[in-house]
Amino acid sequence: MTPILEVKNLHVAYSARAGEICPALVGVNFVLGPGEILGVLGESGSGKSTLAASLLQLLPLNGKIQQGEILFEGKDLLKVSPQELRRTRGGRIGLIFQEPSSSLHPSIQVGRQVSDVLAAHESLDRRTLREKTSELFAAVFPTGAERISRSYPHELSGGQRQRVLIAQAIACGPSLVIADEPTASLDPTTQREILLLFRTLRQKFSLAMIFITHNPSLLADFADRILVLYAGRVAEIGPTAKVLSSPKHPYTEALLQCLPSHLREDQSMRKARLHVIAGDPPDSSLPAKGCLFEPRCTQRMEVCKGSEPPPFTVSELHEVSCFKFAG
Amino acid sequence: MRYLLRRLLHAVFLLLGVSLLTFLFSALAPGNYFDEMRLNPQISPETVAALRAQYQLDRPLPVRYAHWLNALAHGQMGFSFAYNSPVAPLLWARARNTLLLTVTATLLAWLLALPLGVWSAARLGRAPDRVISWTTATLLVIPDLVLALGLLIIAVRTGWFPTGGLTSVGFDDMSPLHKLRDLAWHMTLPVTALVLAALPTLVRHVRASVAEVLEAPFLRAALGHGLPHSKLLYGYALRAAANPLISLFGFSVGTLLSGSLLVEVIMSWPGLGPFLLEAILARDLYVVIGGVLLSMIFLVAGNLFADVLLYWADPRIRTAASAK
Amino acid sequence: MQPLLRVENLVKHYAAGRSAGSRDKHVALDGVSLSIAPQSTLALIGESGSGKSTLALCIACLEHPTSGSIWFEGIDVAALHENQQRKFRPRIQLVFQDPARSLNPRWTALEIASEPLVVRQDTSKQERENKALELLDCVAIPRRLASQRADELSGGQKQRLAIARALALEPKLIILDEALSALDCSVQAQISNLLLELQSSFGLTYLFITHDFAMAAHLADQIAVMDRGRIVESGPAENILRSPSHEVTRALLAATLPITETPGVGLEL
Questions:
Q1: pLDDT of chain C along its 269 residues, tens only?
Q2: What pTM was computed for the model?
Q3: What is the rounded CA–CA span in Å between residue B96 and residue B244?
Q4: Which of A304, B20, C84, C210 is a Cys-bridge partner for A294, taking CB atoms 3.0 to 4.6 Å apart?
């Protein structure tokens, strides 16, 4: 099956105020099949938001894609014309940014904001535009769709705003949706509803998704594969169940160990110290030598200091960038 | 609705307060119109006293104020000593001339400032923006007086424009089209002076507001949805940047009568400015009060207008207002 | 043992509606009662709009309840006058969710940690600085960061700083209003450990407000569940987790998606 998205050797960096170049993504490779949900797991500083922004070239002024290829449906997005890029954005790739509270225009009705996306990519007459917008709202809001489409963002709750963002992202029937921490500021029950909505939409429209988050528990039961990002590099990529239950990369292992588990029957574990990852994430402005996780790794070896580990295949579709699995 | 009514009521009280203060200050200021007359040996003290009684200057202050308010309620604004005629028509004739100038200048200034500011903000830090910033900074620094005088010099030296006045000799005999052309010809320099004086501030404000909005997450999100460039700039960015600009616009409307005094005096434009100046120097009490009140009405109306526009343009203000 | 904090029938009404066309009176708290034993942790769980933050503000004497009482160390602080209440404020401290917004980004870490000490007029600048450095040590912020501006610190460091600031006046009760929610998972673990350490070193009592059941289960002795201004269920943590009785509790528990478990993964002894 031809992949819908192929990212090859992506390098993105920011220039800091003082002029130094801080790499944000280094040598990122992954492939996404049609209708597949890829969960990108990363903490602050891992480069996950940079990844979302660079796929559609929406980096801030000081960010630059240094090299790499982003092949969407066979075409390299880094080489297409500006018009083609504009058509892709929103038209063939939908985008859901963080912070629903600030991703909507404060003085335009949300219904209009969704129709604006439709109008930007399809030439429809007014009546069809209105009908399609109503359909979209009905798809994401089980009740009160009409009233909500006439509201302003500040009159809606966080969950409702998030649904509006989803409506905008799927408006033109894209084949891929990139969601950057779409549930970050929401309550758990609302989070759950949004995830279920995504799943329904995926089934209905056979959408592929890149779901970016720092919370591993959201990806269980939801993503097909997980890509773990650390310091701008892909640490591990594999099927969800495998990555979560038997993580191979020391970072993934350590990260999952940090989570308190409420299913624990043994209550004597309560209020015990949680496992932490020693040290701090690396400073991207300093030059990298060797594996970037090595200073904090409990399983480090001599070879780890010398060079950065390439990805090694552990099993089918499961790759780990760690010298533990060399050879 | 309640919000607007409250603002209106506020405005009325404000105007009453201003009229009272103006009355008080003018009446308490030393001297009155008839002092000049008293110094003139040819006019007998009895005549002066009679005139004073005629204009009720010998009545106590509160009575005079009450009389004046009463007259106001009937649409009259008192009597001018100098011109020996009711104030209202005098003021109005002059105010019309001023408005001719300022409305044109304000419209032009805004129509130029908006695209310039947006264009500048979209190219922040790059060459076009820097040129505009530099130009506006220079214009800001040059005092209005110098600008007006400078233009006047051009008029004198080149003879391309008249050096003053509203119309040429023989205006009444011209055809309507000629009249219009004549008027426009006379208006050019004063309007240019006013526009050059107002433009830099406006451009900088538009630029700053739009530049701030261009950084906003919702704009990046809109870009991510593939919205076309023009829609992003004008439909989304400018609209979000509207709030401070609307307030500024209200201020522009508010200073329609008062902002052009200097230019009018220098370019001999028969507007409200020179008229008021004259009246103040002559202690023509009711003209002064009338003029000040008229200016205040515009100022208050301008602010009210801005409030109404803000209320209409920003749904968050509507929500906050109805919650009170 | 007398509870450190006992809230009785707390009611709080807000005068205005929050969105266009809604009711005139908004009932944020509708008769809330709870109690916290000294040196223990009560986790208050609820969704947004349930009134948890309003409750936190009332207990910290930053909002006046409409009716009800708040007994702190045996005294009804809700009934006190503003001036008398001020005496109690240092003993009840708040740590907020978003350290980026609760800390002045232009101030240095040292300035932020020493600011509350200015209230104690009997200390000199040097004494305040020394105490502030000690506080930074307590929360494991390296001294070399003391002169860094708050906006140059990481999320975890900022939250530690907020905790240091809360400790400055030696409080008895610390209210943590979603203090971990905005942090990465590994950082949450670090801060959670820190909180437990501080609790045993300083004998602190915590009111831990959250919507994360997993973390609540980990840190709390007692759990109370709030919904629409009322406490719908409360009791010892084990009981609530093992057999939740109210539907809201069950819905919240169900929403915490489970992770595939392996023995040994999750806790370090």
A1: 788 999 999 999 887 544 444 556 778 899 999 999 999 999 999 888 888 889 999 998 888 899 999 999 888 888 888 888 888 888 999 998 888 888 998 999 999 998 888 877 777 888 888 989 999 998 989 888 888 898 888 888 999 999 999 999 899 999 999 998 888 888 898 999 999 999 999 999 999 998 888 888 888 999 999 999 999 999 998 888 888 899 888 888 887 755 433 333 332 22
A2: 0.81
A3: 29
A4: A304
Q: Cβ contact (<8 Å) for B225 and A86?
A: no
Overall domain count for chain B: 1
Rounded-to-integer distance, Cα B137 and Cα B155, Å: 25
CATH number for the segment(s) A5-92+172-325: 3.40.50.300
Contact at CB, C20 and B324, closer than 8 angstroms: no
Beta-carbon separation of B236 and A102 below 8 A: no
Tell me the pLDDT band of B55, cut-offs 50, 70 and 90.
low
B268 vs chain C: nearest CA distance in angstroms? 53
How near does any CA of chain A get to the CA of B227, in Å? 5
Per the structure block, which two tokens stand in for B1?
């609705």
Query: Which CATH number belongs to the domain containing residue B198 in this structure?
Result: 1.10.3720.10
Indicate the CATH number of C5-255 among 3.40.50.12280, 3.40.50.720, 3.40.50.300, 3.90.550.10: 3.40.50.300
Q: Do A274 and C262 touch (CB under 8 A)?
A: no
- DSSP reduced 3-state for B37: helix
Q: Work out how many CB contacts closer than 8 A connect B with C.
A: 10
Number of H helices, E strands in chain B: 16, 2
The torsion region of residue C31 among left (phi > 0), alpha (psi -120 to 50) and beta comes to left
Whether A90 and B313 lie within 8 Å, measured CB to CB: no
Chain A residues with beta carbon closer than 8 angstroms to that of B122: none
Tokens of A164: 């509006």
Contacts of A58 in chain B (CB under 8 A): 220, 223-224
Residue that is written with structure tokens 């003082």 in the block:
A18
Average pLDDT, chain B: 84
By CA distance, what is C25's nearest residue in B?
Answer: B323
Domain boundaries, chain A: 5-92+172-325
Structure confidence by residue, pLDDT tens digits, A10-46: 999 998 878 788 899 999 999 999 999 999 999 988 9
- Within 10 angstroms of residue A294's Cβ, the number of other Cβ atoms is 21
- How many Å lie between the alpha carbon of C88 and the closest alpha carbon of chain A? 29
Residue A105 to residue B240, Cβ atoms within 8 A = yes
Residue ranges making up the domain that contains B239: 91-282
Residue B15 pLDDT > 90? no
| Token reading at C194 | 């820190």
Q: How far is CA C205 from CA A259, A318, C3, C161, C201, in A?
A: 23, 46, 10, 19, 11
pLDDT at B154: 86
* CA atoms of B119 and B142, how far apart (whole Å): 24
User: Would you state the structure tokens that stand for residue B230, as one six-digit string?
Assistant: 């023009």
Average pLDDT of the residues in B170-192: 84
Does residue B149 sit within a domain? Answer: yes
Residue of higher predicted confidence among B243 and B166: B243
| Count of pairs with CB atoms under 8 A, one residue in A, one in B | 79
Q: Residue B228: which residues within 8 A CB-CB, separation 6 or more?
A: A86, A120
Count Cα neighbours of B270 within 13 Å in the Cβ-side half-sphere.
Answer: 11
The verdict on residue B75 lying in a domain is no
